[in-house]
């Protein structure tokens, strides 16, 4: 589950991480009121207006702008709220902006020049340990840094049994070239950031940039936080931060029906039980010359109601030219699934796209006979290759 920038910053703040302070506004008038409040609390005279959407690269799309007075705050906020923001991480249609963050200006003059750094905390799956990834090249896409200047990316792996050790926090500060007050501030920042990551059961914390201000404070100017969905039962307060407007509406609907669904860009809809079989089915579709339109795991109870719900979800995608149902009958009997397909098909009326059903496992022979004798425009298969050939045939 992704959080908005302002939500991520509040989470960081609760663990002692210094942040760029800000107030959320849902209208131009609220933006002006927020700017006035922020000025009285922080003394800032300039304000940064930041679109709150679940996508990176907002500045490149015009979603982050600086306002030097209240008139500009009102004007810029009015322009950003309601716009469809297109960034390198959104579709061509972009994402509608429902709210903005009015943030303080932290690039004020002082004894030294401000510096920007990149920092993230995530799991290194190859070692099974959490990892702090950081770089002196803050404000840039980390992919670009990795490609053009890989020697400027550092990593610090954390033993999960020990947690982050003081010497590791100091090493991060040293590799970033800090000294004096900024060095001490960075060690505190890194330690608090790692604690926030672990105790919130996150899968990613990305701060780009981490800023050293002109008076040597270290703070998070941005925040990208992804929480582990499987751990949200331990964090009811964080689960309430979910913004369904930012998610694919079909995926949200599927989730409400208890279906594991991920929308893709292909032309063959998949209905499968089990994540591993679903991945294999997607490979099968590609080998047959198609592209998977979705990942859909119906789970172990593929009855008529569940199959019908899955059909309706898949058919919401106008790009779907065929549907492949691939069920292994281990927990669930194949004949029961076949009857569910037949009942769902009849309940929905005529389904215009071709349907290939591969059922293997318990009572697979009975299931094939049910499908073949149903009188419906449904093709049955028992082997992977047979299913692939039929997908290829309907696509051509």
Key phrases:
396 residues; alpha+beta; 6-stranded antiparallel sheet; 4-stranded antiparallel sheet; 13 helices; 24% strand
Describe this structure in words.
- This protein has 396 residues and is α+β, with helices and mostly antiparallel strands.
- Helix content is 37%, strand content 24%.
- It is built from 13 helices and 18 strands.
- Strands 7, 8, 9, 10, 11 and 12 form a six-stranded antiparallel sheet that branches.
- β7 and β8 (129-135) form a beta hairpin.
- The protein is elongated.
Helix content: 25-40%
The total count of helices amounts to: 13
Shape summary: elongated
Whole-number radius of gyration? 26 Å
Low-pLDDT runs = none
Q: Tell me the number of strands.
A: 18
Give the integer mean of the pLDDT values: 91
Provide the structure class.
alpha+beta
The separation of the N and C termini measures: 39 Å
Strand content is 15-25%
The profile of the biggest β sheet is:
6 strands, antiparallel
Could you write a compact summary of the structure shown?
37% of the residues lie in helices and 24% in strands.
Topology, pairings included?
Elements: H1 5-14, E1 22-25, H2 28-42, E2 47-51, E3 64-67, H3 70-80, E4 84-85, E5 95-96, E6 100-104, E7 115-124, E8 129-135, H4 142-148, E9 153-158, H5 166-175, H6 180-199, E10 202-212, E11 218-220, E12 224-227, H7 236-239, H8 249-256, E13 260-263, E14 268-272, H9 275-287, E15 294-297, H10 304-315, E16 322-329, H11 334-348, E17 355-361, H12 364-372, E18 378-381, H13 384-395
Parallel strand pairs: 14-16, 16-17, 17-18
Antiparallel strand pairs: 1-6, 2-3, 2-6, 4-5, 7-8, 7-10, 8-9, 10-11, 10-12, 13-15
């Amino acid at each position: 589950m992704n959080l908005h920038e302002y939500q991520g910053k509040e989470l960081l703040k609760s663990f002692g991480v210094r942040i760029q302070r800000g107030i959320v506004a849902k209208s131009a008038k609220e933006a002006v009121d927020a700017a006035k409040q922020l000025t009285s609390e922080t003394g800032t005279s300039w304000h940064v207006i930041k679109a709150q959407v679940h996508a990176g690269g907002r500045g490149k799309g015009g979603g982050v702008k600086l306002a030097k007075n209240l008139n500009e705050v009102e004007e810029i906020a009015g322009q950003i709220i309601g716009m469809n923001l297109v960034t390198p991480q959104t579709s061509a249609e972009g994402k509608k902006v429902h709210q903005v963050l009015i943030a303080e200006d932290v690039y004020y003059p002082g004894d030294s020049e401000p510096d920007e750094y990149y920092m993230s905390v995530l799991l290194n799956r190859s070692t099974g340990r959490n990892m702090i990834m950081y770089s002196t090249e803050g404000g840039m896409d980390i992919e670009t840094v990795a490609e053009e200047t890989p020697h400027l990316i550092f990593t610090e792996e954390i033993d999960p049994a020990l947690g982050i050790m003081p010497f590791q926090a100091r090493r991060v500060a040293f590799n970033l070239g800090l000294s004096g007050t900024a060095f001490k501030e960075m060690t505190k920042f890194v330690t608090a950031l790692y604690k926030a990551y672990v105790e919130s059961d996150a899968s990613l914390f990305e701060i780009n940039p981490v800023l050293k201000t002109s008076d040597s404070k270290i703070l998070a100017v941005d925040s990208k936080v992804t929480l582990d969905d499987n751990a949200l039962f331990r964090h009811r307060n964080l689960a309430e931060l979910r913004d369904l407007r930012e998610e694919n509406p079909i995926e949200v609907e599927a989730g409400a029906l208890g279906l594991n669904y991920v929308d893709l860009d292909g032309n063959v809809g998949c209905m499968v039980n089990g994540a591993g079989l679903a991945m294999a089915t997607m490979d099968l579709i590609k080998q047959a010359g198609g592209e998977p339109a979705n990942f859909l795991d119906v789970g172990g109870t593929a009855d008529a109601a569940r199959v019908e719900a899955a059909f309706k979800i898949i058919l919401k995608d106008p790009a779907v030219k065929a549907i492949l149902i691939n069920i292994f009958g281990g927990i669930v009997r194949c004949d029961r699934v076949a009857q569910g397909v037949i009942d769902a098909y009849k309940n929905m009326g005529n389904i215009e796209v071709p349907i290939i059903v591969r059922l293997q496992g318990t009572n697979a022979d009975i299931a094939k006979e049910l499908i073949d004798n149903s009188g419906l425009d449904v093709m049955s298969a028992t082997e992977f290759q047979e299913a692939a050939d039929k997908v290829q045939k309907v696509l051509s």
